[in-house]
Amino acid sequence: MLRTVARASPLRAVVRQAVIDWISNTFDSLQLALYEAVVQPLVFGMGLGNLLEDAFDATGWLLLGLLQIAIILLGIGLLERRWPVEPVTDRAAVRTDVLYTLIHRLGLVRLVMFFSVQPLWDGIAGQLRLAGLPTWQLDAVWPGVTDIAWVSFLLYLVVFDFVNYWLHRAQHQFNWWWALHSLHHSQRQMTMWSDNRVHLLDDVILATAFALLARFIGVEPGQFVAIVVVTQLHESLQHANARISFGRFGERLLISPRFHRLHHSIGIGHESGGRGTLGGHNFGVLLPLWDMLFGTANFENRFDATGVRDQLPEEGGRDYGRGFWRQQWLGMRRLATSFRKPA
After folding, report:
1. Which SS3 state, helix, strand or coil, does residue 28 take?
2. Which residues does residue 278 pair with via DSSP β-bridges, in sequence order?
3. What is the pTM of this model?
C-alpha cells in the first residue's frame, strides 16, 4: 500500500506540472499571436519601435484582461441571470460601468504604476546596499517553505488583502478620499460590471500604493499580475447582481456577493455611528477575516438597495453624474469642496 502511494505521488506531480506547462505554453502562444497580429503593427505605425519589448509585456496584460472579461460574461453573467437580486432597469448606468471595466481590465493603470516605480525603487535599493543595509523579501522569511511558488503567492495575496482592507477603510474615513471613492458607491443598479466604477485619480492612488508595496516586499512582476487578476475577478463576483451567500461558515472564509452588497447598502456600507458619519462595514476585499478582527463585519442576511444616502430625493438628491466624463468631473468638484473649511 505504501509503495502504491509512493508511486502515485510522483505521478500526480508529473500530471500537475504537465497541466501547468500546457496552460503556460498556450498563454504564451496566444500572447505572441495577439502581439504579431495587432500590437506590433500598431507600435510600428506610431513610430515607437524602441518600445517593442514593453509592448510585448503589455500584450500579456491585455490578453489577461480579455480572459477576465470572457469569464465575467460567461461565468458571473450566468449567476446574475439565474439568481438576480433585482431586475436591471437602468441599462444606461450599467453600460457606463462596462466602459469602466474595459478601461481598467484592458488598460494598464496598475501595471504602468508597478513598472514606473521600478527605477525609483532600484535606486533606493542600491543606496541601501551601498550603506550596508540588506534589502528584504517576504518570501525569504522561512527558507524552504515561503520560497515555494504557491506558498509565496498565497503569502503575498494575504499581505495585499490586509493592506487593501486598511486602504479601503481610509477611503471611507477621510473626507477628501471619500469625495472620490463615493463615485464607486453611487451605482444604484449594482452588477458584475460595477467593481471598476472608480474615479481615475482614486485608482492611480491605489495603484501607486500597491506598486510600492509590491516592490517593498519583493513581489516579482509575474506574481504581481497574478495577484491583481485573482483579486479583480473575485471583486467582479462580489459586485454581481446575484442573490448568493456562501453559508454560515463559508461567509467567514471568503467574501460573498451578499456580504459585499451590505457594504454598498444605503446607510450601512458607508456610515457608522451617527447618521451620515463616514465609516461603514464589510471593507474586506478577499477575506472577511480583517472585518471580523477589527469589528467592522456585518453578516446580516439581507439584500438592500445600494447607493449613497445623499442621492436620495429626501436627502438632497445629489448628482453623481450619468456618463463617464461627467462622473469624473463631479468627482474632482467634490474633492475640491472637501478641502473647504465649514462655515
Report:
1. helix
2. 271
3. 0.83
